[in-house]
Amino acid sequence: MEVDKRGLAATMLAGLLFGTSVPVIKLGLNFIPPDTFVTLRFSFASTLIVLVLQGRGWVQWSLFRSRQIWIVGFINALGYVLQFQGQLVTSSSNAALIISTAALMIPVLSLIYVHEKVGMRKLAGVLSGFIGIVLLVTRGQAVNLGSSEVLGDFLILGTAVTIALVFVLSKDLVESKGGRAVTGGIILVTTVLLLPTIPFDQSLSINLAPVAWLYVLFLAVFATVGAYYFFMKGLESVSPTVSSIILPIEVVVAVTLSVIIFGDPFNIYSGMGACLIIAGVVLVSTAT
C-alpha cells in the first residue's frame, strides 16, 4: 500500500519538533523543577488551544466523555513525568536515544491492537535496538543499579513505553474524531492530570528568569501544540508503524543538538549502542 505523502510529511515535521524538545527540557531543568516545568508546558499549551484554536476544531467537548481519551491522557501524563524526572539525572543524548526505542515497541503493540504484521525486518530492528540500549546504558562496564544516571535511563525507558502506547491507542480516536480534536483533547487531559504533581517540587528551588519562560513557551507552542498536531495529522492517513518514522528523525535532531549544546560524551560502547538503536529504529520504521 502506498504511503500518503502529506501524512508522511506531517509525521516527519512532528519528529523534528519533538527532537528539539529534549535538549530544551534539559536546559530548562536548570531553572524549573521537573513536575512544575512539565505542568507549565502543558498549561500554556492548553491555554493556547482553548483561547486561539478552539474554533478551528481543536476542542470537541463531547470527546471528554470518552474513557479512551482519559486513558491516553493518563498514559501521556505519566510518560512526561518520567521524562522530566529522568532528564534531571541522565544526559540529553541518552534520553533521546532511549525515547526513540518506542519505535521498537510499536510493532508488538500494533500486532495486538490493530493486527499489523510483524515481519523479520521489524524483528531484526527490535533486536538491534535493544542490544543498543544495553551498550548505551552500560558503556561496556558493570552497571551500578543504584547510580542516578542509570535510574534516569530507566525512567526514560518508561517514557518510551508510554509513547508507544499513545501511538497505538490514539489511532481509533483519530479515525473517528479527527487529528485536531484528539490533539487538543490529549493535551487538555494531560494538563489536568499533571496539576496534582506540582506539590512534589516544594522542596526544590525555582528560578523563573526570562530565559526559563522562553523555554516553557517554546515547548508549549512548538514542541507540544505544533508537534502533536502534525503527529495526529499524520496518523489520519498512515499506520502507527509508519508514523514511528518520526522517532529516527527525533533522535538524530536531539542527539546532534545535545552534543553541540552539552558536549555529551560517547565511548566506543555507547557509540556502538547509539548506532544500533538508530539502525533498529530505521529498520522498524521503514519496514513494509
Describe the protein's architecture and organization.
With 288 residues, the protein is an all-alpha fold. The protein has one domain (5-286). Helix content is 75%, strand content 0%. It has 13 helices and no strands. Helix 2 (34-53) packs across helix 10, helix 3 packs across helix 9 and helix 4 (92-99) runs antiparallel to helix 12. The radius of gyration is 18 Å and the shape is globular. The termini are close together. The model has no long low-confidence stretch (mean pLDDT 84).
Sum up the structure in keywords.
mainly alpha; 288 residues
State the shape: globular
Quote the beta fraction: under 5%
Count the E strands. 0
Mean pLDDT: 84
> What sequence of helices (H) and strands (E) makes up the elements?
HHHHHHHHHHHHH
Helix-strand makeup class: mainly alpha
Per-chain topology:
Blueprint: H1 5-28, H2 34-53, H3 67-87, H4 92-99, H5 102-113, H6 120-138, H7 148-169, H8 171-177, H9 179-194, H10 210-235, H11 240-243, H12 246-262, H13 268-286
Helix pairs in contact: 1-4, 1-10, 1-12, 2-3, 2-9, 2-10, 3-7, 3-9, 4-7, 4-12, 5-6, 5-7, 6-13, 8-9, 9-10, 12-13
In summary, what is this structure?
By secondary structure, the protein is mostly helical. The protein has helices spanning 5-28, 34-53, 67-87, 92-99, 102-113, 120-138, 148-169, 171-177, 179-194, 210-235, 240-243, 246-262, 268-286. The protein is globular and about 50 Å long.
